[in-house]
């Protein structure tokens, strides 16, 4: 994954220093007990330390050096796990610090009533309550989350989004929400505060990334239970070895019962320390990856749910198509020259600053080489678009040029005494059916022809959708267009389904239908009218530019306000779950090799024939046990980067993903420790350590 | 391995598979309450039973009520059976005049039969009256099996129902299992067994003169009847001659039919199905072996049919198959290889290790029976597992230790397998990046908690029981062989009890207060603490919404999942028991071949 502007390199020196200290602090049993697997290791470390002290004074079968070696590596195992968690937390903390620096306590200009003329009293921003009104002028920091009541201003939101280009905030509509800590650059705003101190968006973000409010997600809890169950099984399998070996020693008449040091070593090697040590790091890192993608998840549960999503509801405009339609063709009416049509279309669009209007001017230049003309030199009067006429145009001396929707122009022409050619009507219908938008151009009572406006589907989006399909995710395009247009764009973009002439109610209904069919739905939204649907959806990404209501209703906020981000969010969610699934597999598969290292070592004195199980050919029983313990500790360190980065994800069917992961982490987990333990044994033997 | 042996094993597998679909779909009809044909005849009886129990098929139960009914049912029957056993001396149908059995043995036997284990610390023909065998033990053979099937059906309903509060009616599921499945099958089977020479009689045991007088050593006793101890501390013996023998009789055929079909395994006679009156001919042997796996295998199809996707059922059957065949193969090969110590002194190894085996069955059928009876939690035997080679004897033991999910008990095997399937789904589901779901139901924390219990409890019973036995004087006292083999005897006994198999390795004297009590507790925990969590899972699943599968959902009928599930079962079993096996059969095997 590429690191964005706010990203940290995987292991930054500053974070590591802090993590080293933290991993010692985390040794506190009260903290450690929350992770049963690692708690068992800590108890084992303590026990072997005591055994070592005892061995210094009481001569036993094992040398104090061996017990010390085991003990030290057990402590290292606990520390490595703590270190992994600390590194993950450190990365979150760095994010939080950056956010917190923008939340200074500032003096706010509190207004007695919600307009600029109200009396101003100066209060600290931390004293502001929900419902208070404040005035923010150019250069001021916005003291808290709120809604613009009066005014328009440009606001620098880089503190929250990392995006330095200023955005416009104004009262009414969908751009009225402001975030505390951002700065007004020009003009002024009257803001109604919508969050009490400590509950602001920034506060929530900080606590989220710090992991302070991190609750275990449902899958995490279930995995914890499974790991605890395995730990109990292994605890039993090792503890009962003592009576078993007592019986065997008596029966065979040789050897000595298995020692506590060996039992503790075996236990620690068997219990799933790899995943137990990395589990919380994986969760924190998942949240962190969201932040790297500039998405703030309101809960870990939301990140996890993202991996389960079956249906993506995507807004057509901005997500699937470029934000605006573009003119792609001039279709003259019978008896009209195409140049004449282009000429009229260009004149009528010269003053039209909308992207559609500009694209007409561009097309006229491309097709016929028409230069742009100065509208004022033509002495033209502009007729702006209005909701009543649904047309725009120019009045030019005697000429009256209009362009607009077909039915509006038809009415206009009819009123002038002309008639609307049936050929044109056919062309209009064709364009609509093909997903375009027809704009009819008329001069006086004469229809000159039709301009075809097309939605431009974003490059690469079709491939993205087919990837999603392979992942088993259905895409649904949401558009206000009529069904004909919607169908054509849907086909071009390659979405699975579409909802045409969408209203907020229809969106909500669609989500509920999918959910009733047992599917998880994700959507993005920004407007207040999206809020009900956002609240209903399982994964709801609100655009940061959106209204407060939308942000409240969603469970994630995309700071970049990029609707396509939803796809990335799903991938991060999947990656998180996959990392959680593959590491236990790896951890358990490792146990096979550890058995082959420790079992013969532990019982060879009683039954020398068990040497046959020493298939790795480890040099001595002590070195075999030590090698297994060392491998067990080192593998945690080796897997920290994987835990933080997540398992590589490529979109494909579940069967293929499972096959690949089983080959890498299952089979790999089976083989790697055989090699690793043997290598460590060779080093130990070479150094004469055991 | 011989061609003859392989042909017989092949025939067994083919015939077994041929029954899976017809019997499986018949059972699905029975449990779905549809007309199965037999209800035209047995319907009135069924309705009468419901009236007596004060229930109706429409009266559905929550999982708690269902579990409560199952426990209450168990409790009543364990009490009843205990009383029958204690007071059989004053009850009728006791031509041999057997006295009431001791309290610890009565506890052990009662628990053993109500838990579908049928561990026998006693010899049937020398301990139990005809009344006890018929009204006590045989009745339990039916109802304990039916109970397992009922719980399985409840679990299946958990998968098929959506946002439901109930999982069926325990009494109805129980009644239908007995009336429509176990009784008709037993009837057919009993009649067939009688045709092969299995006894079915109420007459007292018969004394018949021996064709050839046999000399033997008998313990010498003093005037008070106490054994005389020699200077070396051992009992003294004296030569004696036998002129006649006692032929035990009894209503055996009817009981043997259900003990095989219901994966009970408790023999009418002490020698179980090695006894010529219990299993006289190769044909009866084939039939009895088929009966062991018949219902557990067919229930896979029932499961598939009831959840609306028979591929799911076949997949689980394949998992059972790919676990069963390798164990069978190793067992057969090890037994066929003979004993290297005998080979060394010039015995032809071609005959294989015939110690403890019946000549009329031979190596192949003994190995096949051993594998089948331990894969399923049947526990009947036609050969002495104690006399198997170390490796050959380890295979049945490991099949038990896998948790009795490879076929397993009727009902209980499949619900155990489904618990493992949930673990496999959970891990593989995470691995493909989705909250795990099985058959459209999300597998979450509650299910994992219960599944952990299901897998944990039998392992706890086995390991703790063996641990206690191996360090207490009364535990070690029962061991008849020194060294690793003695350890295997204890490990096998507790594996068999904790997993409700009931077969005995042999060689371990278990009719002592210590073993009767400890094994009894292991059996009780191993059954109840698996069954109740399973019913809880059924309730939790039934309450869940259905999740539509998509391309992102892991297909649980695909070969990959089948192998993964088999791998999980092996890995969990191996990781739990490898250390103890190393000190038992593995050490013994290595000593034998070094």
Question: Can you tell me the residue ranges of chain A where pLDDT is under 50 for at least 5 consecutive residues?
Answer: 1-8
Number of DSSP-assigned strands of chain B: 4
In percent, how much strand structure appears in the residues of chain A? 15-25%
Structural class of chain B: mainly alpha
Structural class of chain A: alpha+beta
- Side-by-side strand order of the widest sheet of chain B: 1-2
Share of helical residues of chain A: 40-55%
Cα-based radius of gyration of chain A, to the nearest Å: 34 Å
Approximately what portion of the residues of chain B adopt beta-strand conformation? under 5%
Count of helix runs of chain B? 19
Element-by-element helix/strand order of chain B: HHHHHHHEEHHHHHHHEEHHHHH
Mean pLDDT across every amino acid position of chain B: 93
The share of residues in helices of chain B is: 55-70%
> How many runs of DSSP E, i.e. beta strands of chain A?
21
The whole-number mean of residue pLDDT values of chain A reads 84
Largest interface: A-B, 78 and 70 residues
């Amino acid at each position: 994954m590429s690191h964005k502007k706010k990203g940290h390199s995987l292991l930054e020196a500053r974070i590591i220093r802090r993590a080293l200290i933290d991993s010692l602090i985390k040794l506190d049993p009260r903290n450690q007990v929350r992770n049963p697997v690692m708690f068992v290791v800590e108890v084992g470390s303590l026990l072997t330390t005591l055994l070592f002290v005892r061995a210094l004074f009481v001569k036993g079968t094992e040398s104090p050096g061996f017990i010390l070696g085991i003990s030290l590596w057990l402590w290292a195992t606990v520390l490595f796990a703590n270190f992994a968690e600390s590194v993950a937390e450190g990365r979150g903390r760095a994010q939080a610090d950056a956010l917190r620096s923008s939340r200074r306590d500032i003096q706010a200009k509190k207004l007695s009533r919600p307009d600029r003329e109200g009396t101003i009293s100066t209060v600290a921003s931390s004293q502001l309550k929900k419902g208070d009104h404040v005035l923010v002028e150019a250069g001021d920091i916005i003291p808290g989350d709120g809604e613009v009541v009066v005014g328009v201003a440009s606001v620098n939101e880089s503190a929250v989004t990392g995006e330095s280009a200023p955005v416009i905030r104004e009262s009414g509509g969908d751009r009225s929400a402001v975030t505390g800590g951002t700065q007004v650059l020009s003009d002024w705003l009257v803001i109604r505060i919508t969050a009490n101190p400590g509950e602001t968006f920034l506060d929530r973000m900080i606590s989220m990334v710090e992991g302070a409010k991190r609750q275990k997600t449902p899958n995490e809890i279930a995995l914890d239970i499974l790991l605890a169950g395995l730990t109990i099984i292994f605890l039993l399998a090792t503890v009962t070895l003592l009576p078993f070996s007592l019986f065997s020693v008596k029966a065979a008449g040789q050897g000595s019962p298995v020692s506590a040091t060996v039992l503790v070593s075996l236990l620690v090697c068997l219990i799933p320390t790899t995943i137990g040590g990395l589990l919380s790091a994986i969760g924190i890192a998942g949240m962190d990856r969201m932040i790297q993608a500039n998405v703030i998840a309101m809960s870990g549960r939301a990140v996890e749910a993202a991996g389960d999503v079956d249906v993506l509801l995507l807004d057509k405009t901005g997500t699937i198509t470029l934000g605006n339609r573009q003119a792609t063709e001039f279709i003259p009416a019978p008896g009209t020259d195409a140049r004449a049509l282009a000429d009229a279309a260009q004149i009528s669009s010269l003053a039209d600053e909308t992207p559609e209007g500009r694209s007409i001017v561009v097309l006229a230049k491309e097709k016929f080489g028409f230069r742009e003309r100065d509208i004022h030199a033509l002495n033209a009067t502009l007729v702006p678009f209005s909701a009543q006429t649904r047309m725009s145009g120019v009045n030019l001396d005697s000429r009256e040029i209009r362009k607009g929707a077909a039915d509006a122009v038809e009415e206009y022409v009819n009123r002038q005494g002309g008639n609307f050619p049936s050929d044109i009507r056919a062309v209009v219908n064709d364009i609509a059916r093909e997903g375009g938008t027809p704009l009819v151009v008329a001069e006086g009572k004469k229809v000159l022809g039709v301009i075809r406006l097309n939605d431009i589907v974003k490059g690469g989006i079709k491939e993205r959708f087919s990837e999603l399909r392979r992942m088993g995710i259905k895409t649904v395009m949401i558009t206000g267009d009529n069904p004909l247009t919607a169908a054509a764009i849907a086909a071009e973009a390659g979405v699975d389904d579409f909802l045409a002439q969408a209203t907020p109610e229809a969106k909500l209904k669609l989500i509920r239908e999918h959910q009733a069919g047992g599917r998880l739905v994700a959507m993005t939204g920004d407007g207040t009218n999206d809020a009900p649907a956002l609240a209903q959806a399982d994964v709801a990404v609100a655009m940061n530019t959106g209204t407060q209501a939308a942000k409240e209703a969603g469970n994630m906020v995309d700071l970049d306000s990029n609707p396509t981000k939803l796809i990335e969010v799903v991938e991060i969610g999947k990656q998180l779950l996959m990392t959680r699934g593959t590491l236990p597999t790896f951890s358990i598969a490792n146990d096979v090799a550890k058995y082959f290292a420790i079992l013969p070592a532990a019982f060879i004195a009683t039954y020398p024939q068990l040497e046959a199980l020493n298939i790795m050919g480890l040099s001595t029983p002590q070195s075999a046990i030590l090698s297994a313990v060392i491998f067990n500790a080192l593998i945690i360190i080796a897997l920290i980067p994987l835990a933080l980065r997540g398992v590589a994800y490529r979109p494909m069917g579940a069967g293929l993903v499972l096959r690949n992961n089983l080959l890498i982490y299952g089979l790999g987990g089976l083989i790697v420790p055989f090699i690793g333990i043997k290598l460590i044994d060779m080093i130990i033997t070479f150094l004469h350590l055991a | 391995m011989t061609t003859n042996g392989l042909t017989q094993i092949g025939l067994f597998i083919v015939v077994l598979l041929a029954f899976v679909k017809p019997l499986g779909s018949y059972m699905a009809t029975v449990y779905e309450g549809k007309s199965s044909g037999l209800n035209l005849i047995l319907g009135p009886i069924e309705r009468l039973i419901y009236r007596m129990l004060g229930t109706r098929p429409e009266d559905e139960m929550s999982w708690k009520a269902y579990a409560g009914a199952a426990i209450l049912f168990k409790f009543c029957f364990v009490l009843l059976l205990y009383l029958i056993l204690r007071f059989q001396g004053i009850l009728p149908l006791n031509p041999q005049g057997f006295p009431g059995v001791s309290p610890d043995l009565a506890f052990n036997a009662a628990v053993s039969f109500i838990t579908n284990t049928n561990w026998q610390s006693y010899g049937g023909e020398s301990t139990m009256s005809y009344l006890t065998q018929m009204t006590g033990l045989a009745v339990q053979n039916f109802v304990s099996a039916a109970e397992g099937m009922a719980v399985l059906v409840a679990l299946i309903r958990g998968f098929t129902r959506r946002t439901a509060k109930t999982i069926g009616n325990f009494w109805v599921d129980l009644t239908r299992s007995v009336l429509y499945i176990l009784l008709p099958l037993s009837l057919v089977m009993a009649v067939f067994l009688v045709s092969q020479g299995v006894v079915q009689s109420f007459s007292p045991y018969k004394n018949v003169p021996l064709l050839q007088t046999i000399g033997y050593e008998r313990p010498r006793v003093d005037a008070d009847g106490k054994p005389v101890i020699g200077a070396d501390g051992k009992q003294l013996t004296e030569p004696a001659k036998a002129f006649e023998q006692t032929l035990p009789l009894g209503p055996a055929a009817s009981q043997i039919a259900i003990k095989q079909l219901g994966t009970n395994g408790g023999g009418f006679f002490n020698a179980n199905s090695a006894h010529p009156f219990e299993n006289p001919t190769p044909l009866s042997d084939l039939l009895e072996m088929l009966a062991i796996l018949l219902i557990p295998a067919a229930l896979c199809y029932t499961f598939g049919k009831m959840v609306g996707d028979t591929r799911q059922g076949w997949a689980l059957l394949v998992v059972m198959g790919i676990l069963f065949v390798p164990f069978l193969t190793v067992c057969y090969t090890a037994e066929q290889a003979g004993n290297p110590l005998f080979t060394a002194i010039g015995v032809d190894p071609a005959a294989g290790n015939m110690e403890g085996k019946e000549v009329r069955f031979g190596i192949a059928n003994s190995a096949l029976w051993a594998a089948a009876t331990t894969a399923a939690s049947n526990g009947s035997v036609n050969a002495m597992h104690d006399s198997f080679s170390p490796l050959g004897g380890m295979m049945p033991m490991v099949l038990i230790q896998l948790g009795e999910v490879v076929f397993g008990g009727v009902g209980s095997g499949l619900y155990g397998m489904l618990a493992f399937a949930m673990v496999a789904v959970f891990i593989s589901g995470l691995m493909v990046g989705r909250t795990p779901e099985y058959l459209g139901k999300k597998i979450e924390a509650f299910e994992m908690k219960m599944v952990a219990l299901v897998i944990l409890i039998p392992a706890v019973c086995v390991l703790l029981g063996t641990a206690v036995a191996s360090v207490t004087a009364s535990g070690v006292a029962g061991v008849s062989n020194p060294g690793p083999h003695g350890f295997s005897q204890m490990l096998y006994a507790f594996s068999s009890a904790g997993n409700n198999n009931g077969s005995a390795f042999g060689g371990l004297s278990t009719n002592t207060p210590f073993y009767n009590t400890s094994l009894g507790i292991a059996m009780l925990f191993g059954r109840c603490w698996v069954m109740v969590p399973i019913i809880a899972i059924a309730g939790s699943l039934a309450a869940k919404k259905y999740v539509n599968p998509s391309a992102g959902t892991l297909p649980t009928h695909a070969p990959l999942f089948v192998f993964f599930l088999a791998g999980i079962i092996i890995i969990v079993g191996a990781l739990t028991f490898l250390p103890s096996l190393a000190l038992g059969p593995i050490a013994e095997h290595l000593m034998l071949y070094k």
